[in-house]
Amino acid sequence: MHALDETSRTRTQRRRNRPWPALRAQARAESPLGPLTLAATDDGLAGLWFDGQKHHPGELGAPVDPSQRWLATGLAELEAYWRDGRAGFTVALDPQGTPFQRAVWDKLRAIAPGQTWTYGALARQLGRETAVRAVAAAVGRNPLSIIVPCHRVLGSTGALTGYAGGLDRKAALLKLEGARP
Fold this sequence. Notes:
By secondary structure, the chain is α+β, with helices and mostly antiparallel strands. 36% of the residues lie in helices and 11% in strands.
C-alpha cells in the first residue's frame, strides 16, 4: 500500500470518528417549530438543527456560549426570520461536508424566500442534470436548516418531500415565507 493512501485513509477515519472537531461553541434556542441547536467554528456557523432532526450529530462536545460571534449573529437573524419569513441571513457559514455537498448547499442559498425549486431544477443549476438523487442526498444532509434553505426544494410534482426536520416543519417554513398557502 502506498504511504499517501494510508495517510489519507487515517485522516478520513479520524474525521468519521470526530465529525465536528473544529467546533468552538454551541447554543440552544427556542423557535415556533421547536428547540434548535446551533454550532460554530472559528470561521462561521457550522450547524443549525431542530431537536429530533435526521442527521443531527448528537453530542457536539463544544462549550455552550451563545455570545460567540457567529452564534450571536445567527440567533439574532433567526429572531428576525421568525418575525418576517423574508428576512435574510448574513452570518458567515462554515458547514462541514464534501466538496459536492458544499456546492449543493451553496446553490441552495440562491433560492429566495417565497420561492421554491425542484430537486431536478437544483441539479440543472449545478450542471448535474443526471445526478438528481445525489443532489437530493446532499440536500438531506444540509447541516444548516433554515439558513441554507433546503426546505425550499420540492419534488418534481411540487409535493413536499424529504425534509430532515419533518414535513410539518417544511410546510410551516414555506408558509412563513409566503411560498405556500
